[in-house]
Amino acid sequence: MGNLEWDGESGLWERPEYREDRSGGLEGWVVDIRSKEMAKKWKVWTRWLEVVDLRMEKGVEYWGSERAVGVVRYRWWPRRVQNAWTSCILAPISTNTLETITGPLEDVAAALEVLVAYLEGLALDFKALVVGLGGHALVFKALVAGLGGLVAVEEPLVTTSKGLAAALEALVTTLGRLVAVVEAIVADFDGLVAIMELFATTFKVLVVAPNFLFHLPIHDS
Fold it and tell me: Is 198 among the domain residues?
């Protein structure tokens, strides 16, 4: 594509490397765009370059150009589309009009083939997207069914939990009554100990009394 110039004022230099896009065009960079307004004029002037993105970076030097203050990413149309457009618009109308437009029309047909191939690729991508969404729908349906089953399991679980709570309350009540019974038993045991102590005291008296009587002095009259 070489050195691109326009307007007689600003030179536009393209980046040395660029790549081919899916439609057969080329993507690259053009520098030394002084303003967005100038970029817009340049876009209209060239006709063949589609400005995709404009980034202004003041004071930055690009590829040896001290005047470069902006960068424009462009897409270069396929050469045959460019040739077809140029031929159809600028070719002089001669007496042999059919021969004049046959070549450009063939180029236009070739360009349309490129476009159709590109659209077919988009159609395949869209079909893959639809299939993927269908798979996601099946997964979501299974998830909803699983949640329904979970709810069905949860309901009897809640009922069982209520029954368990009632059983625990009854157990606590029973334990309270058991504690009361144990306390009564302990009280009775205290009474039994007191009775045993009384028996022991009485038994001690019974044992000591005969000994006392046996050792009493007996005086003869």
Answer: no
Residue 200 within a domain: no
Asked if pLDDT for residue 169 goes beyond 80, the answer is: yes
Domain count, the chain: 1
> What is the extent of the structural domain holding 97?
4-116
Average pLDDT, the chain: 58
Q: Tens digit of pLDDT for each residue in 63-118? A: 333 333 344 444 444 444 444 444 444 344 444 444 555 566 666 677 777 777 77
DSSP-derived secondary structure for 95-157: S-HHHHHHHHHHHHHHHHHHHHHHHHHHHHHHHHHHHHHHHHHHHHHHHHHHHHHHHHHHHHH
**Per the structure block, which two tokens stand in for 74?**
């462009």
Q: What percent of the chain has pLDDT over 70?
A: 37
Contacts 24+ apart (CB under 8 A), 130-134: none
The verdict on residue 196 lying in a domain is no
Within a domain: residue 103?
Answer: yes
- Helix (H) or strand (E) run with residue 73 in it: strand 70-76
